[in-house]
Specification:
Blueprint (H helix, E strand, L loop, with lengths): L10 H28 L12 H12 L2 H9 L3 H26 L1
Helix pairs in contact: 1-2, 1-4, 2-4, 3-4
């Protein structure tokens, strides 16, 4: 039934999607915050606060669930496995950069 997607069922596909998807969302969310500041819908961010960067990064990492679910529906098990690697690396990077403000 899903044989047409079989050629994309590779770990490399999952790694590329798992790395690119959160990065794209991270920059989109930061641009959204910048636009809302410019329109004065939200107050300007305190220069010492990293709340928006921290939250945008966390939401972007969590949005890796979307391509994971798409690969699951398409029975692309290898690509699903590939998404795990960049997700774990991004979580580790997030903890390294923002972990001090959480604890």
């Amino acid at each position: 039934m899903y044989r047409r997607y079989r050629k994309y069922d590779k770990e490399l596909t999952g790694v590329l999607v798992g790395a690119a998807f959160p990065l794209i969302w991270y920059f989109l969310l930061l641009q959204l915050f910048t636009g809302m500041e410019a329109m004065e819908w939200i107050p300007a961010q305190d220069p010492l606060s990293d709340f928006r960067q921290r939250t945008s990064a966390l939401v972007a990492i969590c949005l890796n669930i979307v391509p994971l679910q798409i690969f699951k529906v398409q029975y692309m098990d290898r690509a699903m496995r590939g998404i795990v690697f960049p997700t774990v690396i991004l979580v580790g990077l997030w903890l390294y950069l923002f972990g001090h403000s959480v604890w």
